[in-house]
């Protein structure tokens, strides 16, 4: 009968032989399941965050309280809610200077507005606006802010006229007459820019009343209108076939007309051309006889 010691020895050899046959593997801990079930570990001291996971979390207990939603969902910190520099910095944001714009009788006026923005930003030039109890505020960001409240809207052609003052290009030809027409001084008109380009010119305009071929001889007005060739200040009589009609004896300024809600208006300009107006020419039988009223302006 074999001794117990010998049986134990044989058993041990059998186990070793089974483990070395190249087919069995030694089990290891499931490190992947352990790491995914453990939330990111962050410090609670000031400075850059330290994390074992990809989720960004605040670096201080105060920031963790203020930005709980952002830290748990992976969304950027809601920096726009902070209205002073200290609170902004404490919540891992940066205090920046943003351009603000208004539009009125003096045209576009720009200013500097302090604003709390995220440290990491993306996107290009973006302008936004809001109506704060009748006070229109338009801001221009060098990035695309994603943490603004629902009271803010991205500028488009339906926004306030101040949206057109920003460097963002908005193709809104239907708003340009209103944009320029609000301005009441020649200097402000000449310097009015939309999307970074000058768009207005100073013209003399006479309202001749309904289409009847008569010059009503109302007092002419200086008006700011959208125009082209704004830098041109001289006229070449050779380019003015209207003069050949004999309406204007020696008149050299070109004459334009338009129907403005049933009222015929005429204007003259030496250089710039009013946008949306029709030139008075010698060979256009469809133009109103009010074109000759331009001679008196």
UniProtKB/TrEMBL annotation:
Protein origin, superkingdom: Bacteria
Organism: Nannocystis pusilla
Designated name of the protein: Lipoprotein
Region ranges (Disordered): 24-74
PROSITE patterns according to UniProt: PROKAR_LIPOPROTEIN
């Amino acid at each position: 009968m074999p001794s117990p010691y010998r049986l134990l020895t044989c058993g041990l050899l059998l186990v070793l032989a089974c483990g070395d046959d190249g087919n069995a593997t030694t089990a290891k801990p499931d490190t992947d399941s352990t790491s995914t079930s453990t939330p990111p570990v962050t410090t609670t001291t000031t400075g850059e965050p330290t994390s074992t996971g990809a989720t960004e979390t605040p670096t201080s207990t105060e920031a963790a309280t203020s930005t709980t939603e952002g830290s748990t969902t992976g969304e950027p910190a809601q920096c726009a809610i902070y209205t002073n520099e200290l609170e902004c910095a404490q919540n891992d944001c940066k205090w920046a200077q943003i351009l603000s714009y208004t539009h009125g009788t003096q045209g576009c006026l720009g200013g500097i507005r302090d604003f709390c923005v995220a440290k990491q930003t993306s996107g290009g030039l973006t302008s936004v606006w809001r109506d704060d109890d009748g006070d229109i505020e338009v801001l221009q960001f060098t990035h695309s802010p994603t943490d603004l409240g629902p009271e803010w809207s991205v500028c488009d052609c339906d926004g306030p006229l101040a949206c057109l003052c920003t460097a963002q290009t908005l193709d809104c030809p239907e708003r340009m007459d209103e944009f320029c027409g609000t301005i009441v001084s020649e200097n402000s008109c000449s310097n009015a820019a939309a999307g970074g380009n000058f768009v207005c010119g100073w013209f003399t305009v006479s309202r001749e009343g309904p289409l009847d071929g008569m010059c009503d001889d109302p007092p002419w007005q200086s008006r700011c209108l959208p125009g082209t060739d704004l830098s041109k200040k001289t006229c070449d009589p050779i380019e003015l076939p209207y003069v050949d009609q004999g309406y204007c004896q020696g008149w050299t300024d070109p004459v334009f007309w338009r129907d403005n809600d049933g009222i015929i208006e005429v204007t003259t300009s030496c250089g710039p051309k009013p946008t949306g107006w029709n030139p008075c020419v010698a060979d256009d039988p469809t133009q109103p006889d009010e074109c000759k009223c331009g001679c008196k302006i």
